[in-house]
Recover the amino acids of this structure.
């Protein structure tokens, strides 16, 4: 059976989520801003979704701004704060491009991380001063699974840049961590539906009361003026449902997936000589980032997919080509080692059989490529 | 057979893939991402990847993208820049074929279990009398690309297919149109893929190495003009030398970037007896026996010149002698040796020895002076 080990890229929509959203695509399709009963029905569903998601995220309903996904939420946080307040933006070098690129375009400060990808305390302290208006630190890294010590970061920010907002991209975290608790110190929190059994194209930004930011999309004034555009009611319902289910099942899912991950890792360690576990601890249950010495990711991934193992190197561009990972680069991972990056990411639907299949296919593929590279050199 | 076909996003490789499918092969398309910088032609832009994907979709084959950007920078772009800095005139397409398409890609294809790699090049693969393979000119004289492929040795040719090599370009386009391939009317790519039409070589090189204004002197050492950038001047060039009008046509005889001097002279002074080749590749493993009549082509679309091997050096270099005096070959250019339509081998032209006559200017010893070590290339 094929093994889909790319859950950090996206996940299949859960049947419950599909069932919850489907009425709002067909029967209850109205525009929630409209003047009639059908519109009010859609409006009610949107309000309920907002309340439900707020509950899951530990926010007030009025603090939830629905967006088209994680990238828009990140952009709204970073650019929205900068447009409103100016000042200096700060983020670690391992942020997702949806944060890193907006920070860079505004001349922000990019801070070093340690070998595990955790933001360097000293470097962060040095980058902070009263001119800083936003610090953005992702709760869980999408490539390596590294969990950032957000509470420590918040303390440092309060201390050295008391006027700055703290934003966290919790897109990868929501499946694995209690974001309501872990991100409670953040003023702005980005989430996305499709990483946890929801559809692509919907996400949200939690904007805590009192946080000032300028909208990126102007128009009909939806989402309290922070995000114009007819709301994606079905998407909002799907996100709220997926997040609620994920939260309810979290401890059980995490325990199960942690077991699968351990078995996968142990099996690969004993069958793939020289295998490097990129971040040995402090990572979420679902992400297992490896570097395979003497192997190129592109070649490895193709051999894996031919045998029904779908994985990633976690740093592909839109064309499908692998790009050198800025995350591994920032962590100081050797360039040649990083060329053999392999991200195996597990999800709530991952099975024992998938792990078994991966444990058969991956060592054989690595072996083939290594034998070949010895022949050709 | 499992064939990996390099889809550039152009018409030739599209038809190549279609023909391989007709022959019953299992075909997978791949586009190499080689250049991350500006490009308006060639095989690297996102639009070309999209075109390649559209062709693959039309043909119903899988399409991969391999990123060989680091290799391309190291093996093609950096040496290109270094060559210009040293006053040489490189053929980056040949280095791309040598290192990327027919080494890196073929190696990757081997590792992934493909039996062969196909491209849309206009060249043919034929059998020599001893049974080994030889590269030969494509059927369309105007589109023949054997010149840029001479570095492929027989063992490599055994892993390679050129499905459109026996067709004319018009036939290729007709075939693409007949099959409804979206690339049927796409214009041919021109020039070097990483050089943009707007910026040209000057913008490309100028952002990577310092370009030096230079004096243009005649063979007696008299200054007769100036150039803005010595690094952009090529041996044999006639235009853009800031020469006063009138008088006989003058050609560049030598470029010395160290001294920032370009030496010019008349056609008689441009003509030389032969050319010395280094970094040679020979299909049979060794150069033709001295005295064997051959033809040699000195640029991608150059006319073949009758020649013979005059001497073979211990270092593998080969001295070619023209049957009659010929314009000197720009150092860095590949010279490809043919026996009729069949590629015998070739190499890269060395500087053509001392410039004819005395070079009066004390700082210019002509092209015989080894160029200073080029500055490190700064391209990413």
């Amino acid at each position: 059976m094929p093994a889909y080990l790319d859950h950090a890229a996206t996940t299949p929509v859960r049947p419950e989520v599909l069932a919850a959203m489907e009425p709002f695509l067909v029967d209850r399709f109205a525009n929630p801003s409209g003047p009639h009963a059908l519109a009010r029905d859609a409006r009610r569903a949107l309000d309920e979704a907002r309340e439900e998601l707020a509950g899951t995220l530990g926010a007030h309903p009025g603090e939830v701004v629905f967006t088209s996904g994680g990238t828009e939420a990140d952009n709204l946080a970073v650019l929205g704060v900068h447009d409103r307040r100016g000042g200096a933006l700060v983020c670690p070098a391992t942020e997702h491009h949806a944060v890193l690129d907006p920070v860079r375009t505004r001349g922000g400060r990019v801070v070093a991380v340690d070998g595990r990808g955790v933001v360097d305390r000293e470097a962060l302290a040095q980058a902070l001063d009263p001119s800083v208006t936003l610090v953005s630190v992702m709760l869980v890294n999408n490539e390596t699974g590294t969990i950032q010590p957000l509470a420590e970061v918040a303390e440092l920010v309060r201390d050295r840049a008391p006027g700055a907002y703290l934003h966290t991209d919790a897109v990868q975290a929501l499946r694995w961590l209690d974001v309501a608790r872990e991100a409670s110190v953040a003023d702005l929190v980005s989430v996305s539906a499709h990483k946890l059994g929801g559809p692509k194209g919907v996400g949200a930004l939690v904007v805590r009361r009192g946080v000032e930011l300028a909208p990126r999309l102007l128009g009909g004034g939806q989402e309290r003026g922070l995000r114009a555009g007819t709301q994606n009611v079905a998407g909002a319902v799907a996100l709220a449902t997926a997040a609620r289910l994920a939260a309810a099942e979290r401890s059980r899912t995490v325990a199960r997936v942690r077991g699968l991950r351990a078995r996968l890792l142990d099996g690969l360690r004993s069958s793939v000589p020289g295998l490097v576990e990129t971040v040995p601890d402090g990572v979420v249950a679902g992400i297992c980032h490896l570097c395979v010495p003497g192997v190129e990711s592109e070649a490895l991934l193709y051999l894996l997919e031919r045998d029904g193992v779908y994985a990633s190197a976690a740093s592909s561009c839109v064309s499908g080509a692998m790009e050198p990972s800025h995350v591994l680069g920032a962590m100081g991972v050797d360039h040649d080692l990083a060329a053999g990056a392999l991200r195996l990411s597990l999800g709530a639907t991952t099975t024992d059989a998938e792990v078994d299949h991966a444990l058969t296919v991956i060592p054989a593929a690595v072996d083939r490529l290594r034998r070949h590279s010895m022949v050709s050199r | 057979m499992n064939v990996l076909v390099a889809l550039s996003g152009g018409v030739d490789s599209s038809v190549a893939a279609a023909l391989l499918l007709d022959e019953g092969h299992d075909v997978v398309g791949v586009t190499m991402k080689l250049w991350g910088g500006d490009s308006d032609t060639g095989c690297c832009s996102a639009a070309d990847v999209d075109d390649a994907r559209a062709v693959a979709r039309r043909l119903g084959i899988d399409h991969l993208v391999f990123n060989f950007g680091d290799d391309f920078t190291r093996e093609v772009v950096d040496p290109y820049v270094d060559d210009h800095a040293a006053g040489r005139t490189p053929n980056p397409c040949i280095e791309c074929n040598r290192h990327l398409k027919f080494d890196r890609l073929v190696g990757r294809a081997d590792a992934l279990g493909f039996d062969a790699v196909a491209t849309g090049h206009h060249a043919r693969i034929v059998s020599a009398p001893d049974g080994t393979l030889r590269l030969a000119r494509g059927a369309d004289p105007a589109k023949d690309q054997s010149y840029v492929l001479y570095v492929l040795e027989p063992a490599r040719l055994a892993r390679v297919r050129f499905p459109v090599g026996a067709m004319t370009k018009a036939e290729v386009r007709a075939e693409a149109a007949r099959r409804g391939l979206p690339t049927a009317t796409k214009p041919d790519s021109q020039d070097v893929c990483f050089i943009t039409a707007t910026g040209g070589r000057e913008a490309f090189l100028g952002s990577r190495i310092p370009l030096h204004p230079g004096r243009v002197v005649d063979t007696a050492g008299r200054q007769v003009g100036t150039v803005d950038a010595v690094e952009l001047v090529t041996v044999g060039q006639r235009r853009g030398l800031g020469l006063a009008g009138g008088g006989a046509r003058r050609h560049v005889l030598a470029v010395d970037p160290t001294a920032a001097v370009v030496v010019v002279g008349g056609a008689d002074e441009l003509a030389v007896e032969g050319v010395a080749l280094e970094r040679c590749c020979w299909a049979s493993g060794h150069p033709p026996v001295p005295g064997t009549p051959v033809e040699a082509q000195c640029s991608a679309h150059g006319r073949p010149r009758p020649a013979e091997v005059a001497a073979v050096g211990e270092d593998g270099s080969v001295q070619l002698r023209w049957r009659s005096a010929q314009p000197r070959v720009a150092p860095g250019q590949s010279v490809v040796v043919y026996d009729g339509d069949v590629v015998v081998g070739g190499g890269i032209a060395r500087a053509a020895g001392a410039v004819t006559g005395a070079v009066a200017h004390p700082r210019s010893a002509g092209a015989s002076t080894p160029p200073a070590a080029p500055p490190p290339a700064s391209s990413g």
